[in-house]
Amino acid sequence: MVLSLCLILLGICVIASLVLGSRTVGLDELIAGLFQPDVDSYGANVVRQRIARTVFSVFCGAALGVSGALMQAVTRNPIADPSILGVNTGAALFVVCGIAFLNISTANQYIWLAIVGAMITAVFVYGIGSMGRGGATPLKLVLAGAATSAALSSLVSAIIIPRSYVMDQFRFWQVGSVGSANWNAITTFIPFLIFGLLIGILAASALNALALGDDVATGLGVRTGTLRMIAALAGVLLCGATTALAGPIGFVGLLSTHIIRLILGPDLRFVIPMAALSGAIILTISDVFGRLIGSPGELEVGVVTAFIGAPLLIIIAMKAKVRSL
Predict the structure, then answer these.
(1) Contact 33, 54 (CB under 8 A)
(2) What's 120's domain CATH number?
(3) What is the pLDDT of residues 159-190, one digit of tens each?
């Protein structure tokens, strides 16, 4: 029932993304844009222009949803999210360095640099958060992520401020947006999405055992170190690839995973694939809201998700008292 509901909601969000915006199109124009390539009306062309953006927002939302679910499972931290742990900022720093010092300009180059930056940042934050008594507790990981994100943001500013050409290229990407989507970026992104989603689904049962504690998981035959490394790699790949192409969009992984866990419970065999659907719904409808609120321009989707996600983070921290999963 939940799967059917999510698919219906996703379909509604996709139609809304194709129809709504600074120029709202009618049903006949929607049909012409989708199924009648010989029709060359303005409304039909608007729909065709929005198809790539809609597909890209669905894919990015799914990737961020799965990435958030994997990071929460690996760290046993209910508020783990690429943006909260500083992974997005690490990916952004490497992209900025590539633009400033290596003159990169293609989606392929962005992705690999962002993935390397996300991986290094994830390892660093987890290492810092693991120090001291109690290991990597949720509160220590969040504090380490916040401190790392602040430091890396300062480095980003230090690099782009004296370089106006980097600022021009970076400023629209920095807030997180799917507005510049094209089919080349989507084609580049698809292998990372498929790989991360497959790893997440295949590792779900073992991650369920990991939630019981390392000792219990080891007793059940789970290689905890290998599992954490593989699951974290999948989460970082999804986050890094999304950040490279759409910018650092925050809170989608946190929102999608908590909504699904609230409805279906903690079983990751259901949470991970459903987090992909809910993440796609959240990001797509946020993009539509951004277009409607900012009409005739648009409000970037990263601003909308932050506006929704920040209060949720405060509520979770207050009510759950940052308990471990």
Answers:
(1) no
(2) 1.10.3470.10
(3) 887 777 667 666 656 666 777 778 888 898 89
